[in-house]
Automatic annotation (TrEMBL), chains A, B:
Domain (MoaB/Mog): residue spans on this chain: 10-173
SMART domains assigned to the protein according to its UniProt record, in alphabetical order: MoCF_biosynth
Species name: Hyphobacterium marinum
Name by which UniProt lists this protein: Molybdopterin-binding protein
Signal peptide boundaries: none
Length: 262, 262
């Protein structure tokens, strides 16, 4: 049987506010969850500030090492929105206000009776050779150039843009996941058995994640979530059974969780 | 006057679960918020999977470009915890179970009457030349090697370890921030004036962040937060005044927000 095709994504999150601690990113998780059912696995993510050279360097690294790259942030109308220009620089193409993008923005703002200022026109700056990505929330489009998709940083707008991205992607083998939760057990109670299982099950990747929950009555609850991930559903099911048994052998009561949690 | 010293941090978040979408990282924001008052600014963050070559490559890039590097994740007792070995490989030093780390772990587990398995002993694997970082939550230590601090991925443990990190850091000039919130105004209403302000105020960095809030009665509320950041408190105060005036000029009512939000 042919080895299933591995399709990878790089995610580049752009914005001073993500590095200063002001804002906690939510887009990476959203993108990963969106891509997973398409058979596209996020291989690496980087977070950089609104500085052209940092964006260019990170983008060039990711777009050569990953099948696709998804960027968020820096495509609004203000002076600190420099992503489009940086992407053009990374690809070595020119950039200017483009008629197709301007038409979209003009139409959007005329409907909402908002004046089309010079700053808003800047949002029509699109690199040569790029195709537009529809923004169903605030009008100003994102764009695709080569294997790179450039999207807004505001989560609601980013999610809207993803809808115009999915049909452009060629996915690979879908990675499925099974989670077995072992309340009351620590990683160290399970580690030896997990190591043996992983060594004998190369087509399944097994992860172990301790958790600590403060319950309502103040008593801490702890345990370990075991996650098996694989493109092979049969191997995954066997690994799931094995994980259940490992938890039982350690004196725990395994709980099979929603498979959507990867 | 001498230019204030710029001290930077790279953050390396390690773990398949962060890239698969299973887990949303909270450590980056925590680290950034912890470092800011020390005068250390996060310059770049990377998120990589539990694969040795990816960890080594990212760590070597960050530790040469930043003053300090902080890693989270991959130092537990299970087979997928390979961070310590990868860090040793990145530094080209050997690694083995070390007596000082083992003593800490033995002491911790004997108090909690938890058996010290071979897997738990693995948590005493510390690279040659590293110093231990105390873990006040679950015992097994992190470590410092050169300019790199290796910490746990579980947020509660990571926060605990930071307490034993602060005193080892030499900070620089502290970046202060002022946030002016402009409810009801969009970025495009303010962009021209912001551009002019930024062009004339090079010692202050001005950021603009649109927000969309779904209110309880379902009516969306939108607006723009303007953030000025600077190591120069005088310049920052002037910029704050200028931002307030820009919002008023655009017909809005500026609200000065808690300065702790960077």
């Amino acid at each position: 049987m042919a080895k299933p095709k591995r399709v990878t994504a790089g995610v580049l999150l752009i914005g001073d506010e993500l590095l200063s601690g002001r804002t906690r990113d939510v887009n990476l998780q959203e993108i990963a969850t969106f891509l997973a059912p398409l058979g596209i696995a996020v291989a690496e993510a980087r977070i950089v500030s609104d500085e052209a050279d940092r964006i260019v360097m990170a983008l060039n690294a990711l777009r050569t090492s990953c099948t696709y790259v998804f960027t968020t942030g820096g495509i609004g109308p203000t002076h600190d929105d420099i992503t489009a220009d940086a992407v053009a620089a990374a690809f070595g193409v020119s950039i200017d206000v483009r008629d197709d993008a301007l038409a979209v923005i003009e139409d959007w703002y005329s409907r909402s009776k908002t004046p089309l200022t010079e700053s808003r026109k800047r949002m029509a700056r699109i690199p040569d050779g790029a195709s537009l990505v529809t923004n169903p929330v605030t009008g100003a489009p994102g764009f695709q150039i080569g294997n790179v998709f450039v999207m807004a940083g505001v989560p609601k707008i980013m999610r809207g843009m993803l809808e115009d991205v999915a049909h452009r992607l060629e996915g690979g083998a879908v990675t499925h996941a099974i989670t077995v939760s072992a309340g009351g057990l620590r990683e160290g109670d399970l580690a030896e058995a997990l190591r043996t299982l992983q060594a004998g099950t190369l087509e399944v990747s097994i992860g172990s994640y301790p958790f600590f929950i403060e319950t309502r009555d103040g008593a801490p609850r702890r345990g370990t979530n075991l996650v098996a991930r694989s493109t092979d559903q049969g191997a995954l099911n066997s690994a799931g059974e094995a994980l259940m048994q490992i938890v039982r052998d350690a004196g725990g009561e395994p709980v099979l969780e929603d498979g959507a949690k990867r």
